Amino acid sequence: MHDLYSLMYVSQASDLQAHDLEILEKECVARNARLNITGILLHGGHLFVQVLEGHKDDVQHVFAKIEKDRRHTMVIVLTEGPIGERRFAEWSMAFYALDHIGCTAVAKDIGWPEWPQTVGRATAQAQPPAILAAMQNLLAA
Ligand SMILES: Cc1cc2nc3c(=O)[nH]c(=O)nc-3n(C[C@H](O)[C@H](O)[C@H](O)COP(=O)(O)O)c2cc1C
Question: Ligand 1 pocket, 12 CB below 6 A?
Answer without folding.
Answer: no
